[in-house]
What we know:
The protein is mainly alpha-helical. The chain has a single domain (3-321), classed as Farnesyl Diphosphate Synthase, CATH 1.10.600. Helix content is 74%, strand content 1%. The protein is built from 17 helices and two strands. The radius of gyration is 20 Å and the shape is globular.
Amino acid sequence: MHNYLNSPIKSVKEELDQLNKNLNKMIAADNPILYSAAEQLFIAGGKRIRPVIILNTAKFISIDKTISTEQKRLAEITEIIHTASLVHDDIIDNCDTRRGTNTVHNVFNNKIAVLAGDFLFAQSSWYLANLNNLNVVKTISKIITDFAEGEIKQGTKTFDTNMSIDEYIEKSFYKTASLLACSCKATVLLNKYSLYNNKDFYLYGKHIGLAFQIVDDILDIISTSKELGKPSGLDLKNGNLTASLIFTLSTKRKLYRLIDQEFQFKDGINEAIKMIKQTNSIQKATDLAIEHIQLAIHILKKQKSNKKNSMDLISICYYILNRFN
């Protein structure tokens, strides 16, 4: 799995090392509780997949393969926004661990965690304003609106067996793909001399973001808690209907009853997972992710650039699909 990420990470290693150093400075707060709450998630790490995508996009569209200071700052802002959304997500989903580490609300409490998330959103907005680029501010501000809209859409559709695949894709766009779509677009907007169309890169980010979320939701069903670094089956438990589950509903009528009971019985979730695995629903969900990855690769291949230049961005596509292994 990680082989696909080797080249994209190596390509921007210096920038990523600097990004990790900068993030700690950027979230500095006078209040020690607020600081340690915000720091909690940065300690947990993660692959920094979003900055890897932004920095490689910046390199791809640059004439001399350089990444501007503003684009590096954008990568940092995006990671702060993403982290803020995770803090709030974990409270909503009542998730006690993430990346194998206790979540902020678990270490402190819900109130502190909400404030820590708000603090991170506020910090990202301040750094965003300092980029002094109105188009970029408008583009990135939309992500924060979309996060809220995604959470509300998810919240109003819990345990709703009428949810369609289209509604699932729409919710996944708001919750995950918007961040990548808007930040890829903003990366192009920050290059004054770019000959590339920012709409193309918006679509590239959108499709890899949707594929990422679909794969994430499949992993929630087929992986162990240890592999995920957070509890498995959490989507089911919280009533978030994902692609595999929606596809299974058409063949396993008993699943309706389990969802209507909101998995209140001990074996309900295991039973539902067993049903999903008995059908071809996981394959159908995987095919859906493949479709979005193919669209992303198609966008890259139509760009007027030499093939070698686009290999890192294409490798990221393959990494997203191969997270099962």
